[in-house]
């Protein structure tokens, strides 16, 4: 991929819009095509040059907003920024409109709930001949869109492709590190969302900063056990897309998953706690737990989150169950 090659962004939410802005800033003169499913919404954004997902930020002329898949044909790469549970269907629908050589860069953080499949596997199943990459790391859409310093990780199985994509997407304030541990990067992003819900529940329940720090530390141990069992590399988990993302997501209500957990901890039913926003961890929790059990991995915090969301346990009962676990060597 050329450093200034056109880029397509599939999905016009806050994160998709932020990545479109970052891609445009990375290579002045580059055409960035921002695709939205809704033609009416696309037309409104095209007219106003402002996304309702990120109000107050003007879209530069280099960003072309469309709902027409044929506008994606010249893209050198496609950033797939749609919810994890719709990733397979969107790529299957838009794949024929993309160049056969254009890599799909997965920018969502989750696991397919219906099939218990990692997103890279889901994308490969519907576009088997095209390269797949994963982008993840500690990044809030508003920070990236405003040009605040942010660092993320991009992984592809082919080292040369990962490096080319990273250089093409890196800009003055958006720094993209690269590697080949696709599984490690995507597991870090998916699992930390579930753990962020747990941290939010602790916050909302008023259990204190000490309890939250302990939960994050033990949660990271869970994430590490799970990721290593599925082939991730240890260094990936202590990097941006593992520990880095976990720290950010468990520390601020700007994180949708953390905020979702805070509301549950304050007594809001799980079905209402998202407040109309997407908390990917709520959909990932069950799949994460099933995959952990299949690999013989203990993930008590993730299991507690899954049980609370499903209504099998109250928050109080889940906390009591975790505190009653046998003491063991760390």
CATH topological fold name of the largest domain: Rossmann fold
How do the strands of the widest beta sheet line up side by side?
3-2-1-4-5-8-9-10
Write down the secondary-structure element order: EHEHEEHEEEHEHEHEHHHHHHHHH
Strands, count: 10
Global mean pLDDT: 95
SS-based class: alpha/beta
Principal-axis shape equals: globular
CATH class term of the largest domain: Alpha Beta
* CATH architecture classification of the largest domain: 3-Layer(aba) Sandwich
Taken together, the total number of domains comes to: 2
Biggest sheet overview: 8 strands, mixed
Rg, rounded, reads: 19 Å
The portion of residues forming beta strands comes to: 5-15%
Helix coverage percent = 40-55%
Total helices: the number is: 15
Q: CATH H level of the largest domain: which superfamily?
A: NAD(P)-binding Rossmann-like Domain
Write up what this structure looks like.
- The protein is globular.
- It has two domains: 174 residues, 3-Layer(aba) Sandwich (Rossmann fold); 141 residues, N-(1-d-carboxylethyl)-l-norvaline Dehydrogenase, domain 2 (Orthogonal Bundle).
- The chain contains 15 helices and ten strands.
- The strands form two sheets. The chain has an eight-stranded mixed sheet, sandwiched between helices. A two-stranded antiparallel sheet has the order 6-7.
- The mean pLDDT is 95.
- Helices cover 49% and strands 12% of the residues.
- Helix 7 crosses helix 14.
- By secondary structure, the protein is an alpha/beta fold.
- Helix 6 links the parallel strand 9 and strand 10.
